[in-house]
Design goal:
mainly alpha, 2 helices, 58% helix, 0% strand
C-alpha cells in the first residue's frame, strides 16, 4: 500500500475533522477526490 505523508499540523487538522476516527479512510477519500478533480481521466481505462 502506498504511503501518504503529511505535516504534523495538517495531520492534526485532518484528525479533528475525522468523524469516525479512521484517519486512513479519510486520507484516501481526500486523495481520490483530489485525483478525480485534477485528473479525471485517471479513472478511465
Amino acid at each position: 500500500m502506498p504511503r501518504i505523508e503529511v505535516s504534523e499540523n495538517l495531520y492534526r487538522q485532518i484528525e479533528s475533522e475525522t468523524a469516525d476516527g479512521e484517519i486512513n479512510d479519510t486520507l484516501w477519500k481526500m486523495v481520490g477526490s483530489y485525483r478525480r478533480t485534477n485528473n479525471p481521466e485517471s479513472d478511465r481505462r
